[in-house]
Design brief:
- It is built from two helices and no strands.
- It is mainly alpha-helical.
- The protein has one domain.
- Helix 1 crosses helix 2.
- The longest helix is centred in the N-terminal third of the chain and has 34 residues.
- The radius of gyration is 17 Å and the shape is elongated.
Length: about 80
């Protein structure tokens, strides 16, 4: 943990997480859009196992869209390596 005040800590968290989460969400929503609108129009019911399997695959897409952003944030010094 860093030895910073509350305001500095909150600002550091916002800087580190906002772009990372946004890039993950872009990949996740793109993956969800593909299978809900393009492949299975009008979309799978949210109570089916197929929907939740494809949600997991969309999360993997989100991981790969967030990876380069997280790498940049680490190189820029906004995030710490884990």
């Amino acid at each position: 943990m860093r030895d910073v005040g509350v305001a500095q800590g909150l600002w550091a968290a916002v800087k580190a997480d906002t772009l990372s989460i946004a890039s993950f969400q872009i990949g996740l929503f793109a993956g969800m859009w593909v299978h809900q609108e393009a492949l299975f129009a009008p979309g799978l019911a949210k109570t089916t196992a197929s929907y939740w399997l494809l949600m997991q695959l969309a999360m993997i897409v989100g991981f790969f869209t967030a990876w380069p952003v997280n790498g940049w944030l680490v190189r820029a010094g906004w995030k710490e390596r884990m």
